[in-house]
Amino acid sequence: MMKRAAAVVLTAAALLLLSGAFGFKFSGYQAQPANAVDPLTLSIDRAQQRLKAVPGDWQTWAALGSSYVEQARITGDPSFYHRADAALNKSHTLRPNDAALTGLGALANARHDFATAEGLARQALTVNPASATAYGVLVDALTQLGRSQEASEAVQRMLDLDPGLPALSRAAYDAEQHGHVDESRALWRRALADAYGSNALFVHQQLGDLAWHGGDLATALAEYRIAGHQLGLARVFAARGETEAALGFYAALSATRPSISLLAEYATLLRQQGRPAPADAQLALADAALALLAASGGTDHLAAAEVAIARGDFVSAVRFCEQEWSLRTHSDVADLLGWSLHLAGQDAKALVYAQKAVALGTRNRDYHAHLRAIEESLK
Amino acid sequence: MIGLVLGATMALLPAHPLGNFSVNQLVSLTLHPDRVEAVAVVDLAELPSLQLKPACAEISAQLTVKVDGRPLRWTLGSADVARNPGAAGLETTHVTCHLSAPATLDRPASLDVVNTYLPDRLGWHEMTATGVGLQVTGLPSASATDQLRTYPEDLLSSPPDVRYAHLTGQPGTSAYAPTAQAAGTQPGIFARAESWLQNTVGDRTLTPLVGLLAVLLAMVLGAGHALLPGHGKTVMAIYLAGRAGRPRDALLVGATVTATHTGGVLALGLLLTGASSLAGESVLGWLGIASGTLVTAVGLAMLITALRHRRRTRHHHAPHHHAPHDHAVHHHAPHDHAPHDHAVHHQAAHRQAGGEHVTHDHAAHRHAGRPHHHHGHFHRHDGGGVFGKGHRHDPVDGGAGGVRKRRFALAALGIAGGLVPSPSALIVLLGAIALGRTGFGIMLVLAYGLGMAATLTAAGLVLLKVRDRISHRFQVLTRLAPAAPYATGALVLVVGFGLAARAATLVV
Lengths: 379, 508
Known about the structure:
With 379 residues, chain A is mainly alpha-helical. Chain A is built from 21 helices and no strands.
């Protein structure tokens, strides 16, 4: 009887000791607020977990890298580009594959290196001719390079392969470029049906842009509000003359997402309001951002031109735009080059580019306003 | 071409590791019995360094610490602003603020920490907490970034975004040392072999020679994996030592391990391939729990049978100092007589008619059906051995039902040993599936299982040999023989619980 009792007591004591020795984690800390709603965050979490278990899984490395590119685009946090780069290269090193090439292409697009992006997309398509994602990268690169005919063909092939949100959004943008605004809106609406989370916000932002380019401020405001798109809201308020509200949005963006174009836009509005000192402060910041971009091996002549125009240095603006035009002939570049030439007093030359900007048929309100102003001063 | 392109992208690194416009923050709390000290560090990348001049007064105003609901009032201590060279000839700013506030923490307390300084700025948000003479839980104790000076480049975790925390503090020295992670670190040579194998599976060209080498290596790795803790080797050892274990028992365990491990890895591999949402670590944790539970159940069964058997046979233990000729003595008593008597008497007893046995109660139930089974190894009688192994009273040892039970127990131990898959085998299999080399992957997994089985079987056989060699030298222990079934049962139970508990820490 005693032995039995002793055995039970010993076992119990040993169990207690063990539970201490094996160190139960009674409380952990939450390093990441769980955001299970957003599909992108979710896919990043899953990929990270998966790669901790299976570090050699090159397919998931490629998916993670592409998700990081998306994350950088949505949050505006450039540190994700660095991660994307490393993850995609890791995938490609483990095993050369089209998904990694496509991701690197998307990264090159995000960094405005459109020629590289085109090359990478074409390499990916050589490996996998049925990759809709690779066509997406190709479409973006061709569009930005100003090769709209090739871009439209690639969009069609992408739609045939996978008529989802990525293909629909490219088709919608292509339609807008050609002035088919109604078709573009219908495509965005179709895309919205299947989009949720950050994807839905993206579509609303695009619908806002479409309305903004057409001069429909009320619709633009409504869409930007749904999307929570501060830059759009700032522009709409500035256009409606609600300058203080606009400046508030610009100030918030300048503090949290100081992109070069944004700083130039903000400085321009400040200057229009007769506040040169804060305007100069924003331009100094823009110069620093340009220097940082150059130091990291990147270039953005168009953004540099915007800063030069905001400063009133139109000659430099023309030079920057011409540099960009030598790289790509997108209508954005044509418009800004024409406008810079006009500001620099070269209206005859300006007219050529302002006409190129609307050559595809776009109904962009700003482009047409620029063109009218140039024609006016030529009279 | 690809190389050139990749090289070009590689060069485009942002100046600050977390981006040119990040504002990175760290709050390090040190809890004393009479006060809370905080070090608030803000690391500004190049652009924010042009925009902001952080002052410790602003930073401390946005750092709220409540002790049991009452907010602390900070007193500013020393402040340090360092400007460091950044990219493009610009500077980054590193601000360190020392804060202190009186607090009553000489009794258990709960603390809430909220950092609302520049909430909209992107960047690394980290918090740590330690105690001096206090035990603190709720936050890691050390900064991962050396106070925002070096940022870990971990591609598999996003930058932390900790802006609030709930802490508990209680008097006492910190017993909450970061425990070593569950076994998984292997000697360098194993790690290198594993990575070679994983790369081989991914290689585009796979020659037969390399394939053969890979299979052999997989066996070695499997054998090595079985050497790591957590495969019920202890349990098998206790079981075989405490019971009348035989070489074929060790083989049975080995075979079960191979079958379970191979099947388990294949099933898990298919599962993980199908659903990428499944986190590998937690699955391993659950399998570990299952394995531990199984072992615990075996231990429990051993204890219960021992207790039951004891009730049935208690009267046999009484006649401990009988004359040497009493057969019962050889089988039940603590064997305090000289060993040489033993063998002689035993053999003598054997030569007698079986009727002699039958007249004994114990013989009737022990030897029923297989009268001479145990006497084939008469040497087991000389001395009793460690924990009285070879003790004929093992309830699961006797009779056909006992044999079945014991096979179940051994198979259960084998399953427990094979249930926790070798992570390396799993990676190899997943890699092979992903590359369309499923057959090769399965072959490698099988090799892993065989390697594991070899280790476990060899361990069992060595153990049996050692036991038989040295057993007669430990006669003192034979006094403990009657307690042996409980001790082995309890030990198996304890180890099983321990395995399950350790695995549970992976899941919790």
